[in-house]
Specification:
Blueprint (H helix, E strand, L loop, with lengths): L1 H15 L9 H13 L7 E5 L1 H4 L4 H4 L5 E5 L5 H6 L1 H4 L7 E5 L2 H6 L5 H18 L4 E5 L11 H15 L5 E4 L26 H11 L6
Parallel strand pairs: 1-2, 1-3, 3-4, 4-5
């Protein structure tokens, strides 16, 4: 009995010391907060938020000169993660436009995550944005055809179709189809646009995204 009580006390002490498991992506969110404390981004900019395709786009501002870009991608995140941290990585910036890339990790996380589940998660995020930032334009970039996740493409394309159909019926919202732009004539991902992990893009891949994204950015 005494041992159990001692263990409980030690666990409490460990939690206060920060040893307990923190919330997922706590370090990423802390880094964003630190950057904001040093220099808070201007309001009414364009916010890029989502998973590692944005995290690794470290020179995204250089792709869109003349626009003020805030990059709040955190690698490995799913839609529930963006939903969890919306109050920290979306709302405070009061952006005039939000560009979202997320959902691919949802599909990859489990075979039980269907296209419908990804769609419902996106709708929840979209609804939250509409409630808190009703005048903000929302842009969703289609899930991409990653070679390392090729076996999941049925769910990826199904999720893209569901989200696209939904967005097309919303005001001040757009769906960008990069999926088909990243395929060759053989229907397979273009060679040379991914890095060695066959998941993340190189500069050639991001050039495709730039071409599709830039026309929908707000001045």
């Amino acid at each position: 009995m005494k041992s159990a009580k001692l263990l409980s006390v030690l666990l409490v002490i460990a939690c206060f010391a920060g040893i307990c498991n923190a919330q997922p992506f706590a370090e990423d969110i802390a880094a964003f907060k630190k950057a904001d404390a040093l220099k808070f981004p201007p309001k009414h900019a364009i916010l890029f938020v989502g998973s590692s395709s944005f995290t690794k786009w470290t020179d995204v501002q250089d792709y869109f000169p003349g626009y003020t870009i805030i990059n709040r991608g955190f690698g490995g995140s799913t839609l529930p993660d963006v939903i969890r941290y919306a109050g920290q990585v979306i709302y405070p910036y009061q952006p005039k436009e939000i560009v979202i890339y997320c959902g691919e990790n949802d599909v990859a996380s489990s075979d039980t995550v269907t296209a419908q589940i990804v769609f419902e998660r996106f709708k929840q995020l979209f609804g939250m944005i509409r409630t808190n930032l009703p005048k903000t334009k929302v842009v969703f970039i289609s899930l991409k055809p990653s070679p390392s996740r090729w076996k999941m493409q049925d769910r990826v394309t199904a999720a893209n179709k569901l989200i696209s159909a939904y967005i097309n019926n919303q005001k001040n919202a757009m769906f960008i189809d990069v999926y088909h732009k990243m395929l060759g004539a053989d229907g397979l991902p273009l060679p040379g646009i991914f890095i060695e992990d066959s998941l993340h893009m190189n500069a050639q891949g991001y050039a495709i995204w730039k071409k599709e994204i830039e026309p929908v950015l707000m001045k």
